[in-house]
Specification:
Layout: E1 3-9, H1 17-27, E2 32-38, H2 44-53, E3 58-61, E4 75-76, H3 78-83, E5 88-92, E6 95-99, H4 102-110, E7 121-125, H5 129-139, E8 145-149, H6 153-162, E9 171-172, H7 174-180, E10 186-189, E11 214-217, H8 226-233, E12 237-239, H9 242-257, H10 263-274
Parallel strand pairs: 1-2, 1-3, 4-6, 7-8, 7-10, 8-9, 10-11, 11-12
Antiparallel strand pairs: 3-5, 5-6
Helix pairs in contact: 1-10, 4-5, 4-9, 9-10
Bound molecules: 2'-monophosphoadenosine-5'-diphosphate.
2'-monophosphoadenosine-5'-diphosphate (ATR) is lined by residues 126-131, 150-152, 155, 190-193, 203.
Amino acid sequence: MKKLFAVLGDPIGHSMSPFMLNDLFSFYNMDSVYLPFHVKGENLHDAVKGLKAVGVGGFNVTVPHKSNIIPFLDGIDELAANIGAVNTVVNENGQLIGYNTDGPGFLKGLTSLVPKIADQKVLIIGAGGAARAIYFTLAKENPRKLDIANRTIERAVSLINECPYSVSSSACSFDEAYELLGEYDLVIQTTMIGMSPKIYEQPIALNNLRKQSVFCDIIYNPIETQILKEARLNGASIQNGIDMFVYQGALAFEKWTGIFPDVNRMRDNVLKQLGGKTC
Ligand code: ATR
């Protein structure tokens, strides 16, 4: 019998996950289907109960349900619990267990540019949900510094204070980050500033960015944000958000099937889907 996988979100129409994951299931000859479900917050508990009742193999959770879903699950792993957000649920012998593959996906996608986070000086721009997943994941990797720049500094301070992993961190404003930029080996832009349609916005200018640094923007639409272009023109190595998206999906697929999939195939599919609507 066909096995069901799903993604729950509100909205969900623009999710690229069904295309990416259905292609993998057919590529690996698995009799499975991955369906998007538009679920409003008030129906989330019923949706989870329904999926469990029909024996779902697993599912993804996206905005705005990543935190709200936690009480409806049977268990949650340590990293997801610390982050306070779940993006992947696995049906483990009838128990729905929550994981977070967003941060680990970002880290794995970065390996070719930054093989080891240990001893790196890292700046994260933004302190929202995505920043939180990345901060907690990188904090476990022993960076020399893991700072956060955010418009609302208090939010960056709270994030740092809530992290159970020991790491040297400070919070700063965008103006302070602009001045200090030359100190960092790795800078990660996690806000939605620069995302389509407001493609000409960026949180900070990069005049002080080091040429040898690595600059990541987790946005993938457009494929190259204005800030990523500036980083590239300044001589930094750059990475857009496609890898984080692809690797979070690859890690979810691995949790469900035991197979770590062909990420190049996934990346090509995402690029195909983004074709024509990248700005
Ligand atoms: P996500 O889950 O996608 O990270 P989020 O939790 O709403 O989304 O977080 C959005 C991030 O983008 C925050 O860091 C937010 O800054 P604040 O904490 O000050 O709100 C940042 N952000 C969004 N719009 C912004 C803007 N116009 N200027 C500066 N920062 C912005």
